[in-house]
Prior knowledge:
By secondary structure, chain A is an all-alpha fold. Chain A has one domain: Helix Hairpins, CATH 1.10.287.3510. Helices cover about 75% and strands about 0% of the residues of chain A. The termini of chain A are far apart. By secondary structure, chain B is mostly helical. In chain B, about 70% of the residues lie in helices and about 5% in strands. Chain B has a two-stranded antiparallel ribbon with strand order 1-2. The radius of gyration of chain B is 31 Å and the shape is globular. Mean pLDDT of chain B is about 90; it is low at about 465. Chain C is mostly helical. Chain C has one domain. Helix content of chain C is about 70%, strand content about 5%. Chain C is built from 21 helices and three strands. In chain C, helix 5 runs antiparallel to helix 7 (about 175-200), helix 13 (about 320-340) packs antiparallel against helix 14 and helix 13 (about 320-340) packs antiparallel against helix 18. The N and C termini of chain C lie far apart (about 75 Å). Residues about 525-530 of chain C have low confidence and may be disordered. The chains are: A mainly alpha, B mainly alpha, C mainly alpha. The interface between B and C is large, with 77 and 74 residues.
Amino acid sequence: MEIEIIRIIFLTVVLFSIGILGVLTRRNIIVMIMSVEIMLNSVNLLFIAFSRYFQDLNGEVMVLFVMAIAAAEAAVGLAIVIALHRNYHSIDIMDIKALKE
Amino acid sequence: MEKTLITLAMWLPLAGFVLNGLLSLRSKTANQSLVSGIGIAGVLAPFAIFAYLTFNLDILHLTEEMKEFVLFSWMNTGTFSIDFGYRLDGLTIFMAWIVTGIGFLIHVYSIGYMYAEKKDFSRFFAYLNLFIFAMLHLVMGNNLVILFLGWEGVGLASYLLIGFDVHKDSAADAGKKAFIANRIGDAGFLIGMFLLYQVTGTLQYSGILEFFSVHSVAADLLNVIAVFLFIGAVGKSAQIPLYVWLPDAMAGPTPVSALIHAATMVTAGVFMIARLSPVFLGAPEASTMIAYIGASTALFSALIALTQTDIKKVLAYSTVSQLGYMFMAMGVGAYGAGMFHLMTHAFFKALLFLSSGAVIIALHHEQDMRRMGGLFKHLKLIAVLFWIGAIAISGVPGLSGFFSKDMILEQAYTFKNGGPVLFGMGLLTALLTSFYVFRLIFLTFHTRHDGVADMEHHHDDHHGHDDHHGVLPVSWNMKAPLVVLALLSIGGGYVGLPHLFTHETPAIVSYFDKVLEYSEGKSPSEASHEWKNHPTESEEQVLMGVSILVAVIGFLIAFLIYQKGNARPQPDGAARPFYQAWSYNKFYVDELYEFLILRPMKKLAEFSYKIVDVKIIDNTLDAIAAALVAIGNFFRSFQSGVISDYALYIFLGMSFLGMILIGGVI
Amino acid sequence: MLTLSILAPLVAAILVWIFPSRNNYREDSGHKPNGWLMNVALIGSLIAMVASLLAASSFNGQSAEFQLHEVWFPAEGKAINWIFSVDGISIGLYLLTTILFPIGIYYSYASFLVNAKQGISPRREKLFWISLLFLEASVIGVFLAQNLITFYVFWEIMLVPMALLIGIWGGSDRKYATIKFFIYTFAGSVFLLVGMIALIYAQWSNGTNFDIGFALYQNAAQLPSHIQRYLFWAFILSFLIKIPAFPFHTWLPHAHTQAPTVGSIILAGVLLKLGTYGILRFSIPLFPEAANAYSELFMWVGAVAIVYGAWLAWSQDDLKKLIAYSSVSHMGYIVMGMFAGTANAIAGSYLQMINHGITTGLLFMLVGVVYDRVHTRDIAKFGGLAQKSPVFATIFLIATLSSVGLPGTNGFVGEFLILLGTFEANMLIGAIAVTGVIFGAVYMLQLYKAVFFGEPGEAIAHAKVSLHMNSREILLTVPFLVLIFWLGFKPDLVLSPVRASLEKIQFREIDRSFVAPKIGKAVPVEGHAEHH
């Protein structure tokens, strides 16, 4: 059964929006990282959908790249979270405002 | 030779000022004979030098080069240059005689007058010498800028001497008032000077006189210049509307009132008009205005003098009134008469002031005539001298005041622009003058009221110290100058015997006609010739008769009211008939000025500061600064330090860019 | 010599810095000031003074050119080089600066001593002297710089030590005053920088660089008139704020009241002159067409400042504020005279720049003398000082008279020439400005009366120390007094060396259109009428 491309686009937009909302509104850094993952994955989904739609493998190659980067990013991100937690004893971004100074 | 002498004469008073000034700063009680020696030398030396010059030079026939003595170049900007120099001619030597002669007498008198003030003795003599220095520059300078130097210099000396008693707020206020009233005049004078400079291209007298001898200047322009110059004279010589400072100036010691505020400084305006005769003689309308202002001042201040109770205030208003006469004479073009009255007035008014000073000293600084009376038996010589002065000022024939005043009245009568009106005002003034001066004499020296007993009673009541009883003796160095002045008051008028007696031009008039000659031999009398009618001899007789009559009437009224009727002026708070109240309160002019000028100005100044400067200008500035800060704060609020906020900005920014891109594609 | 007068204060500043001495005491510890530090600073500024006098002695007053060139970094054809030189316009102000600074430095020491006697010790002495010395070097640099960029660098550097002086040793409200002073004048300077760059940019192609000299003036005068006008505004705005001219004057009273005495002396004596110096150096000669076009406007600005400043001074109850506003009034004369543009007015303005430095400097110093003893500036609390301290009263009177322009003092010559020159240019404005003569007397005499006459006021009666000036302070007033009378009788001391330079700036001839038609040849009088 072929799913119409427009529905997949719609799904990815919804996923991406959820991700952005998560980044913007949540105060827990881990949740924010997860939201970023959602955004990345929504883009991945879109790549795959178009790759199939245009019968072009380039899109799927791109997805592999993104997944690798996402993994690295998650690793670095979590490491930063741990470092922050050591220094601030909190992973709430409202407690961490070093940028303001 | 002459140059050295004149330079010495001009600068020795300053040396006296500096020496005595330093003495007063160094020690509180300087050696009084040293101080008075320095002070007297500072005025006697110039007097001797001017006397020497008068008798050794033919003053009336000096060439233009011989009149000028240039010391050094004062200002030089390339287009404008003014020298610091002096001018010796008939007018300046005449004034120099009066300044140094009367100055010398008053210096001598001051030794006695100020003797008790051990602390301030040297300061007083320093200021007197400063005054002589400035006044000599006023009259002797060879250009208008030096005249202005002296003009403001005498103002400074006057300021310092009025406020001589530094403890008294009222004295300081009076000094300030005098200086500022003079400054108002000076501002006008400066404008007149600048306008004159535009016309003649120079401020040296020789240049100005030469200019007017080869150029004719439209009368309307000269009228403007003359009016502005006259504003300066109004301030310095205490004419309406700036006369108010002079009565207050009586806060100064009495010798100061005699020297500065009667004999010399206040006549500077008259001198200035004579000095710039080509300007004023070329300005008929301005001259007419001067005559009317002079006449009004004479009458107005005589009215005020009628009811004053402070002995010095009466004399002060009398001075204003007599100055009004002088300006009346100058206004109708009778320069000889004006200068004549300047001289005789210097004699008898100095005499009157100094005699009143003797009374004041004798009564332990009492100036209120209501506390005087019956002093004749205590102060016989002073009373006689006072009588001489009074007779002279009131215009009784034979004494100096009669001749000069009569000449002015006659000249005023012949003036084409309302001569009889001027004459009437002058005559009325003469009547009032005679009345108030004899009123003064009766209240002070005669009447049955015993001032001495009153004073002792008063002292017992209020102070309770016993060593102040009785009339103090008047020392010889106060009496001697008085006698000299009395002789001058008697004899000084004979240089101006009227036409009626001699059938010639009065000697002093022809002297000034010769001295003030300008433009191809035209003298002031000739230049103002067409301003005047020509009285017949019988008219002259009537005029003189009338003026003698009013003097006698004035005397009789004073005699009847105060001697026979034994009337006394009322205390300050007492109810007076309204005409007396107006005169007593000086027609409320001070209050009027306070209300109309001073207070609005002060309000305006405060408004400028509190509203315009602080509220509007400074607040605008602060508001601009605050607005910038607010803008800064607004943008600063975006920098919250919260990562998700930054993420939002990134997102919004990206969306914005994206929309632009998409918009661009579509 | 010129370079030496800039370097000497800087070297002295470094010596003060490395001088072994404790620096910071508690204010109430009663420590005396360190005389050695003062000596080093004083010697530095005295060397500068001697150097400047030597330079002046070899100055040729007949020439209007830049003279005595001293080159640091020669950079032919490049934009920025370091050349110092003087001409008639700068020589007088240069000397005024080098003479005022040693006096100010020694005065500060005298003031520290008087305060130490009352148990108030000086704060952060080293920094104080260093600031003063830096200020001196930078002000001298402004007058001597012969390159726009060098000029601008000194112009800006100068703000820093001055801001420190006000901000550290100032009065209770010093923070506000410092910020206002700094930001306001700095904002003005930005216009100046933009103007300078634009000026050079506009004519870079024909080889003009930042060197202040004949080529710059020559080329600038040929700019199209609308560009001239823009540039004129950029320059003048900065100068007007510095002067300060109405309506940009509001920073001045704050700065003066909060500044320490020496700060006020220097501020009034020298810093305000930078604005008028800029007008003479740049605004008028660079943009003659614009200056001419706007001359009437700026004459009005000056005349308004004269009268308005006097009014404001009249309604003050703070000694220093009163004198600060009197400065606004006096600077009004100078601005008016410069834009009147006749030879007399410009010469008078120049003289008045020097005069104001002397007179107002002296006035601020005297206020400082009395402030050190009574610690208040509220006029209402004074009174009766004449009997307590006659010497002080006399010197203050002389300063007052010089301020009101009494003939015989320096103030008169300047005012007289300005008014005369303004009258030649525009009678109405001249007549309005003349009223300043009256108001000047009003506020100064009111001040003098309130402080010196009458019975002793609250502050005078309760003063804890002798109100007499000590010999140190009297000595310090002597140079001022000598100059007041010297310039009063021989203004040529200032006017003749600068005449040649000022003649180049003068842009207006005497307007005699009002009087000329009314003058004719005298008609010889035919046959005098008989009289009497």
